[in-house]
Amino acid sequence: MGYGVCVGKYQVGRTIGEGTFAKVKVAVNTDTGQNVAIKILDKKMVLENKLMQQVKREISAMKLLHHPNIVRIYEVIATKTKIYIVMEYVSGGQLSDKMSYLRMLSEKEARKFFQQLIDAVDYCHSRGIYHRDLKPENLLIDSKGNLKVSDFGLSALRKPGDMLSTACGSPSYVAPEVIIHKKYEGAAADVWSCGVVLFELLAGFLPFEDRNTTNLYRKISRAQYTCPEWFTTGQRKLISRLLQPMPRRRVKVSEILEDEWFRVDYEPATGIPNEEVANLDDVYEAFDSIGGKLTEATKAKSPSFINAFQLIAMSNDLDLSGLFEEQKTKLCSIHSITETIEKIEVAAKDVSLSVERTNSSKVKLHPPKKLTRSISHIAVSAEVIEVTPTHCMIEISKSAGEIRVYKEFCKSLSSILKGKSGSST
């Protein structure tokens, strides 16, 4: 395999995939010799489509995922023009490639892949993360013949129209409620897509096909499909529950896990680490400086590569004024935004600061009026950014005032978030 340019410690090789916003290349870690896949995003395209905040949030969500049937993200690197997402390399290729020459799978193999798919979907849904584009092209096979789901959470990197086309040019895997542009629940939409995948694995063809797009939409919205004669009763029953056109009546993942056909030879995924707070610094540091103007002097001194997504938004609208007087701290929270704000209020009270809510996710901290003489002026703000419904990143900034009070507040909040303070709620 020929390798060319180096990105950090990774030597980049051939292209193995390409999409709307990104290319995927195989690369090798020059420190360890490990093969990796690198998804390369064009930063200009992401910015022009106003997707920076969504990409930031979704990449952060993906870094929280640690499951044997989900492709891992190792780290993120950025240059002035590109974003590099370093991921696990899955050598067996796409499930769609396997289907192209086998047409249909045996019941045993189809069930195994479907079980692993549902395991991955269940894990992600329990963390508030949805795929929204499940199809064989996004399902990879590793060297041991196990399924791994790619691109979980990266819906921002697909244009709205992309959901209406697959490799064969049809919206065959998309739920009815998505096609008619209704507000939809990500979990139910993913379950429908899983149903289409299962049907295709067992039948060797798609449940919904028609050259006329209008007719195809009608078939999907009415769930008009015909099972092959070789489908067993158990297969037909489960597929009918998966391909239920009414989202509220569609089977839930928890019910799939109890289905009689599904449970044959079922081995739940193992090796899933306990819930932990992931290190998201390599994602969030990249977005710290979006907002002002970048001076020519700063641009001239900028490094070729910025590890940990440090200055991803390095462009003419970046402002680094006041860099040396401002203090910034990031903390992770395994609580909702509302709960996290409440803990910020408790921490502020611990160090005799008042809290002023500027919106639902941002607060300002300052001394109470009666204490302004005993505590010098301090300007601190804290913004809570939702990664998933139960994981947040807190960005704390001090633009003026005494560093001692700022550090005491950060220390108090850190303890409360870890459940080590008696003052926490």
From TrEMBL:
<dbReference type="InterPro" id="IPR011009">
    <property type="entry name" value="Kinase-like_dom_sf"/>
</dbReference>
<keyword id="KW-0808">Transferase</keyword>
<feature type="binding site">
    <location>
        <position position="39"/>
    </location>
    <ligand>
        <name>ATP</name>
    </ligand>
</feature>
<dbReference type="InterPro" id="IPR000719">
    <property type="entry name" value="Prot_kinase_dom"/>
</dbReference>
<dbReference type="Pfam" id="PF03822">
    <property type="entry name" value="NAF"/>
</dbReference>
<dbReference type="GO" id="GO:0004674">
    <property type="term" value="F:protein serine/threonine kinase activity"/>
</dbReference>
<keyword id="KW-0464">Manganese</keyword>
<dbReference type="GO" id="GO:0106310">
    <property type="term" value="F:protein serine kinase activity"/>
</dbReference>
<keyword id="KW-0723">Serine/threonine-protein kinase</keyword>
<dbReference type="InterPro" id="IPR017441">
    <property type="entry name" value="Protein_kinase_ATP_BS"/>
</dbReference>
<dbReference type="InterPro" id="IPR008271">
    <property type="entry name" value="Ser/Thr_kinase_AS"/>
</dbReference>
<keyword id="KW-0067">ATP-binding</keyword>
<feature type="domain" description="NAF">
    <location>
        <begin position="301"/>
        <end position="325"/>
    </location>
</feature>
<comment type="similarity">
    <text>Belongs to the protein kinase superfamily. CAMK Ser/Thr protein kinase family. SNF1 subfamily.</text>
</comment>
<keyword id="KW-0418">Kinase</keyword>
<dbReference type="Pfam" id="PF00069">
    <property type="entry name" value="Pkinase"/>
</dbReference>
<dbReference type="InterPro" id="IPR018451">
    <property type="entry name" value="NAF/FISL_domain"/>
</dbReference>
<dbReference type="InterPro" id="IPR004041">
    <property type="entry name" value="NAF_dom"/>
</dbReference>
<dbReference type="GO" id="GO:0007165">
    <property type="term" value="P:signal transduction"/>
</dbReference>
<feature type="domain" description="Protein kinase">
    <location>
        <begin position="10"/>
        <end position="262"/>
    </location>
</feature>
<dbReference type="GO" id="GO:0005524">
    <property type="term" value="F:ATP binding"/>
</dbReference>
<protein>
    <recommendedName>
        <fullName>non-specific serine/threonine protein kinase</fullName>
        <ecNumber>2.7.11.1</ecNumber>
    </recommendedName>
</protein>
<keyword id="KW-0547">Nucleotide-binding</keyword>
